[in-house]
Amino acid sequence: MKKIKIAFLHLLPLAGNITHNQQLIEKALTLIQDKKVDWFLTPELAVSGLQFSKKFGTNWINRQPDEWMTNFIKLVKTVNVNVFLGCPEKSADGKLYNTVFVINRSGELIGKQRKISSVTDDWSTSGEFIEPINVEGSKVGIVICADAYTNHVSNTLLAKGAEIIIAPSSWGPGLHGPNGEWEQRSVETNLPFIVCNRTGEDETVSFWEAESSVIKNGKRLLAYQSKQSAVVTFDWDLDRNELLSKEFEVLEML
């Protein structure tokens, strides 16, 4: 059995308030410092909020790692955890992407996945590459929010050897809310989906009832929603891809 502890940051970000969101992420990371967490997950666009461009524009988006992420990587090393961080980025040719970065516990930026579907992101460019990332011997696939609408991304990750799927999301209930997509993708791939969602609201979207969840074989084994930022943790067996915890441990961020 290869037991690891996984933490969700079920975040209440403020769209466009970059400094506020960065400070919340840092606070959450320090909160788990003594919890022996192995993987720390943030939702999609944790640094910016989903609809930041309507309030704050895109001129602030940098090539990564910028000054803040460089300092954040040092904090990651101090806490001794692997982090999946949702943050916009600018490429060398000036294109903008909705990206999840993977930072290992040694303080190394070991990979990233750019969101493939950009239909709802009027500022971002669709990513071109879909590859699992090796995190301490486990091949981890990343499916960012609406990339779960179809089976393209998840099936590609499966074909390339992914053993587990991380799904950083900003996806709340409503007209275009999740309707069994994560569950269906888990059935098709026979891989667990670890969904890190968020709470709060942006300009036109509400996330108050959005759930972070652990999904396997089409079933939600654990689910969590809240009205404030919180860190929730659970234990997972990587060898057998099985949930070990009966419930989440919740660390509220007051």
TrEMBL record:
GO molecular function (one): hydrolase activity, acting on carbon-nitrogen (but not peptide) bonds, in linear amides
Keywords assigned by UniProt, alphabetized: Hydrolase
Pfam families linked: CN_hydrolase (PF00795)
Domain spans labelled CN hydrolase: 1-238
Protein name (Swiss-Prot/TrEMBL): Carbon-nitrogen hydrolase family protein
